[in-house]
Write a structure and sequence with these properties.
heterodimer, A: alpha+beta, 4 helices, B: 900 residues, alpha+beta, elongated
């Protein structure tokens, strides 16, 4: 039974941007990507995912257009805009920094006083 | 038409698709996919749907949220897109304009003339009519007062009404004491030499009286203004107040200015203060310094008693809210009770300070300036029509490109916006160039129209800039809107297939209409110019009654150090005049109290048997004191009896000579030589009329015959009271004789005497000046209009040819004579111009009456002028269309045919 992890607000945005950094995807594909990428451990509500997508579209981080899915259905495809790519790079850098810092603390032993 | 715009309709459809539909489609797709995936793992459809719903969360809330986000986003994007379009359009327009510099230069030049002329004339009118002089707080409460004198109801004279902007001092006193609540001030400005440490400077000196500074509300920046005791009229006080500008320009703004001595004319003065910055008096003609009127006595030592000496300009400040009509009523009452003989015909008149003083307001120069504004506006209209035509022609060359854009799905309103953007761009360029033109033109206009006004402020202020911007905007819209509307509807299929060789007939009609209206307005302008020139000719032909061309005026005065000798010098004038007869080229010399047309003088008169109450005023009778030989010298004819003889004396019983007009009015059908006149007092002895002379002008170039009588200049004691010598020279010799007389007199008199000799024609130059200026300005405007209109004709005809080169080629190839082909197209252009010109003639006949006030003895419906103007326009139009026509027929038919 996989452990369910709560996602911090804002982390979802980064995951969506990361998903779109591969190629354009429709909303459902992004949901599937995150679900599988986290080994089904992230239990996100799909509604929140769409809210994030639309919000980022309004902010100009992602763009969208209607196209045909691989199963031949009309679907709304999202892509990363240049501004979105910049945001993703910045978020990735600060995430890695954070991880390095936390890992450092975990591995450190107290020095004798 | 059906094929066009399917692209943009699709774009529109997508754009108008409700946000909700998109959101629903997206969410439906999500659920469908999720259910499919879950079913693929073996789940039942219903279970799969339940799980997908659980995974999604509150679907309705989410949907509402998404719709809200999308709606805001779409609205923001629409606004943003407008801006992007604008930037794109601008970029496109600038790029395409850079590719056609010839078009840009033509349009900017045309517009700079049209806009420049308007801005320049506006800057003059702004100063004359709209803005009060600077530095006067609450200027709306300040009024100028003038005296409107109509003829007495019973008088035989014309119904002319004259407005005098100057009052006599007793009238001023009456106003101040009898009209409650108002403050009254008076002033009299003259140019005088002011001598300070740095040398003599010609300055405008205003002598002031009453509450002048209080009325105008200025305060001292340095020192003080005049004290009440300094302004008391009976005791001269020699103190002066400087304007801020004069203080800075002529005294380097020195702080210790108070107490500095200066000389004005013959008197030493002490500076007591400087006015607040900006203030330069009540007139556009800026004052440099002010002195109390008591010290300055141009009207003689007892000037404040002179009830007939109208020389003080009057300003008054009324309490807030007091209406002009009430001030007028009260002031009229005061004027009619001050004991001046003209009283019962007097009516006070008040003018706003902003309108310029009454002289400026009614002067010919101002009337010309006002008419010129109309002319400038018409010039702008012609420029607009021309630019509209150029834009249309340019658009025709680009119709392929426009058709492609339309086919690509660009909405029509965007095309219109694009084309308007272009015309606004060139209008903006024209406005900038026009401002440069206006700066210069306004300065030139000020010098030409109002040369005596000492202007201190800049020609262009923010109001003027605002007007320029507004005019540019109007021009851009006016010139661009119609072509933009027309061009944004290209015949897409036709153009793209290459079959649309001839423009839609509607467009050709539009171009012809523009050309015709240009012709009409040009005729209007040229007709105005022709009338003004006609009137200038009439003015130059005016017979003043004197042989002005052969007269030389001689003034003698003692210099400042020998003022005591002045009366003696004046007594000697008749002797000096007799001496001048010996100078070669001199045919005669005589003395008089004043130079003819140099001023007017009234003497109370009482012809027996007539009620003379108020029988003098603007139409005379005027009086002159002249020496013997005066009439022969100045070229007036003696019609009956004799002139003034050497032995005649002004001794109370001596002879009087009257002019023809006076004899006609007073004694119709009777022998004037049997009549007599009582002068100065009703019970004085009746002086015999000994002669009748021809009429001559009393005050200037333009006047109708007025009554005039002449008295001997020598008084009962045998002493001459003359002020000037007039010399008659042989024809064509006035200039050389002037020089000879000046040299001879200066030698005879010694260096203490100031001798001024000049041909009398120079006196009339100032009066001729406004007529000449009007002629020059109207002709310039007319020619500019003609040039602009001809550019229009040339452009239209060349365009027609470029469109028809194929037809012409075929006809030439078939052996049509060049002349015939040429003639046909030229006839076409000339026909349009002629139609416009005929409309212009009608317009000119309607508008002519507006010019009446600046014309002299010229009918506004002069058929000669109108005919000449139409003929000129037609010749120019034929020339302007022959040039491109000739060029077109020179083309080898083969080339013309291949070109298509």
């Amino acid at each position: 039974m996989p452990t369910e992890l709560d996602l911090l607000q804002g982390t979802l945005d980064v995951l969506v941007l990361r998903a779109l950094s591969w190629h354009t995807m429709h909303g459902y594909a992004i949901a599937r990507f995150i679900r599988q990428g986290s080994g089904e451990r992230f239990q996100i509500l799909d509604g929140a995912l769409y809210t994030s997508l639309h919000r980022m579209e309004a902010a100009g981080l992602v763009g969208s257009e209607w196209g045909i899915s691989d199963k031949g259905k009309r679907a709304k495809f999202y892509r990363l805009t240049p501004a979105g790519k910049r945001a993703l790079r910045a978020e990735t850098a600060s995430w890695e920094e954070y991880v390095r810092a936390v890992t450092g603390v975990f591995k450190a032993r107290p020095e004798p006083v | 038409m059906t094929g066009m715009g399917s692209g943009w309709r699709r774009a529109l459809r997508l754009f108008l698709r409700p946000v909700e539909r998109d959101v629903d489609d997206e969410l439906d797709f999500h659920f469908e996919q999720r259910c499919d995936d879950l079913q693929a793992t073996g789940l039942d459809r219903a279970v799969a749907l339940a799980q997908a719903t659980a995974e999604f969360g509150a679907r309705d809330d989410t949907r509402r949220g998404l719709v809200r986000i999308d709606r805001t986003h779409r609205r923001r994007r629409a606004v943003l897109e407008q801006w992007e379009w604008l930037v794109q359009d601008l970029r496109y327009v600038l790029r395409s304009l850079r590719r056609s510099p010839g078009f840009v230069v033509t349009v900017v030049l045309t517009l700079s003339v049209g806009l420049g002329a308007n801005v320049a004339i506006y800057s003059i009118l702004d100063r004359l009519f709209l803005a009060p002089p600077p530095g006067i707080p609450n200027a709306a409460q300040v009024w100028r007062l003038s005296d409107r004198i109509g003829s007495h109801p019973g008088s035989a004279m014309s119904n002319e009404v004259n407005v005098f902007s100057t009052l006599a001092y007793p009238q001023l006193q009456a106003l101040a004491s009898q009209v409650p609540g108002i403050r009254v001030g008076g002033y009299h400005s003259e140019r005088q030499d002011v001598i300070a440490a740095g040398g003599a400077v010609s300055s405008t000196v205003a002598a002031v009286v009453g509450d002048y500074f209080t009325v105008l509300g200025t305060r001292p920046a340095v020192g003080r203004l005049f004290l009440p005791e300094e302004l008391r009229v009976t005791t001269p006080t020699y103190v002066a107040v400087l304007s801020d500008r004069a203080w800075r320009d002529k005294f380097s703004a020195r702080r210790d200015i108070v107490g500095q001595p200066i000389r004005i004319g013959d008197h030493p003065y002490t500076i007591v203060g400087v006015t607040a910055p900006g203030f330069h008096g009540a007139d556009n003609d800026a004052a440099d310094l002010w002195v109390p009127m008591n010290a300055d006595e141009p009207m003689g030592p007892l000037w404040y008693q002179g009830a007939h000496t109208f020389w003080i300009k009057t300003v008054l400040r009324a309490p807030i809210g007091m209406r002009a009509s009430r001030i007028t009523a009260m002031a009229t009452t005061a004027l009619r009770h001050d004991g001046v003989p003209l009283d019962s015909a007097s009516t006070a008149q008040v003018h706003a300070l902003a309108g310029g003083d009454a002289d400026e307001f009614v002067s010919r120069e101002t009337a010309i300036a006002a008419r010129l504004s109309g002319v400038a506006f018409i010039l702008l209209l012609i420029a607009c029509a021309n630019i509209a035509n150029l834009l249309l022609a340019r658009g025709m060359h680009r119709r392929h490109e426009l058709a492609v854009r339309t086919a690509l799905g660009i909405p029509r309103r965007r095309l219109v916006a694009l084309l308007l953007c272009e015309s606004l761009c060139v209008a903006g360029g024209g406005a900038l160039a026009g401002l440069l033109v206006a700066f210069e033109a306004a300065a030139v206009l000020r010098r030409m129209l109002l040369p005596d006004v000492h202007w201190v402020d800049s020609t262009v202020n923010w109001r003027v800039l605002l007007v320029a911007a507004a005019l540019a905007l109007i021009t851009g819209l006016l010139a661009g809107l119609v072509p933009a509307w027309q061009l944004s509807r290209p015949d897409v299929t036709g153009v793209l297939k290459g079959s649309a060789r001839h423009p839609a007939s509607g467009r050709a009609r539009l171009r012809n209409m523009l050309l015709a209206s240009q012709s009409a307005l040009s005729v209007l302008m040229l007709a105005a110019a022709g009338l003004v020139v006609r009137s200038l000719e009439s003015v130059q032909r005016v017979d003043t009654g004197y042989d002005v061309a052969r007269l030389v005026q001689v003034d003698l005065s003692a210099d400042a150090a020998h003022m005591s000798q002045q009366p003696d010098l004046e007594r000697r004038l008749p002797d000096i005049a007799r001496g001048l007869a010996a100078v070669p080229g001199v045919e005669g010399a005589a003395v008089a109290d004043m130079v003819p047309m140099g001023g007017i003088r009234f003497v109370n008169w009482y012809p027996p048997g007539r009620d003379t109450t108020n029988m003098y005023g603007p139409e005379g009778p005027y009086a002159s004191y002249v020496g013997s030989q005066f009439f022969a010298t100045v070229g007036m004819r003696i019609l009956q009896g004799r002139g003034i003889a050497p032995g005649d004396r002004d001794d109370g019983v001596g002879p009087v000579v009257v002019n023809q007009e006076m004899a006609r009015q007073l004694w119709p059908g009777r022998d004037p030589l049997t009549q007599c006149l009582r002068l100065e007092a009703a019970n004085a002895p009746c002086r015999p009329v000994v002669g009748v002379v021809s009429n001559a002008h009393a005050d200037g170039l333009i006047e109708s015959p007025s009554m005039h009588f002449y008295l001997p200049v020598v008084d009962s004691a045998g002493v001459s009271d003359a002020g000037v010598i007039l010399v008659r020279t042989s024809p064509q010799l006035t200039a050389s004789v002037s020089t000879a007389i000046a040299r001879r007199l200066q030698q005879a008199m010694g260096s203490w005497a100031e001798v001024r000799v000049h041909p009398m024609l120079q006196n009339l130059d100032r009066e001729l000046h406004p007529w000449r200026t009007a002629g020059a300005l109207f002709v310039t405007a007319g020619l500019l209009a003609l040039i602009v209109a001809m550019v229009g004709v040339y452009g239209t005809v060349s365009y027609t040819f470029s469109q028809q080169s194929r037809d012409i080629g075929i006809r030439m190839a078939l052996g049509a004579p060049r002349g015939g082909v040429l003639g046909q197209v030229v006839r076409e252009g000339v026909r349009v111009v002629l139609a416009g010109a005929l409309v212009g003639v009608v317009l000119a006949m309607i508008a002519g009456r507006l010019l009446r006030s600046i014309l002299y003895q010229t009918s506004p419906f002069d058929p000669g002028v109108l005919l000449a103007v139409v003929a000129l326009l037609l010749c120019m139009a034929a020339g302007a269309s022959l040039l491109p026509a000739w060029r077109a027929t020179r083309v080898d038919p083969i080339i013309a045919l291949r070109a298509e």
